[in-house]
Design a protein that fits this description.
166 residues, globular, 13% helix, mainly beta, two-stranded antiparallel sheet
């Protein structure tokens, strides 16, 4: 009887261990990353000027971002490791940069990371609140102007493709 119980328990544990390995990671991008704009080769940086905080590819110093898993598979909150209290948000007020906001647990602060095609190593960063909005940038195309925004996908005028680097 003991052998049967031990065999049954061992079989259950083996089954559960194999079952866990088969489940894909629902947040494969969780962790720290540097986001590099493909068009300009500039990194998205944390921006701080007085009491204004945000994200920009031109101004700022800290380029490491943290992707915090959201409440649904494949969604993330994006914060700068320099200030983990400030979140990227669709409701931004910046002119040439994205302002950041305190955590609100709103879907305006949730984003997905999507390969530009299956198996690609370059990505789109898309808003969950408005799936027509993407993280985009423009560096140096208009004289000294630079812009980082959440804007509809436009492969002609905006750089909306990002490389994620560890």
């Amino acid at each position: 009887m003991k052998k049967i119980i031990v065999f049954f328990v061992a079989s259950c544990m083996l089954f559960l261990a194999c079952k866990k390995e088969e489940n894909p990671n629902s947040h494969p991008f969780a962790g720290e990353w540097k986001l590099k704009s493909v068009g300009s080769n500039q990194y998205l940086k944390y921006y701080l000027s007085g009491s204004v905080t945000g994200f920009d590819i031109y101004s700022g110093t800290e380029s490491t971002m943290k992707f915090i898993p959201g409440n649904t598979d494949g969604t993330y909150f994006i914060v700068a490791t320099a200030n983990i209290d400030k979140y990227m948000d669709l409701d931004n007020l910046g002119y040439t940069y994205l302002t950041s906001h305190n955590f609100s647990n709103s879907n305006t602060q949730l984003f997905t990371v999507e390969p530009i095609y299956k198996g690609a190593d370059r990505y789109y960063i898309r808003s969950m609140a408005d799936t027509s909005m993407y993280l985009v940038s423009d560096y140096g195309n208009y004289g000294r102007a630079t812009t980082t925004a959440l804007y509809p996908l436009n492969l002609t005028d905006w750089d909306c493709i990002w490389v994620l680097e560890k």
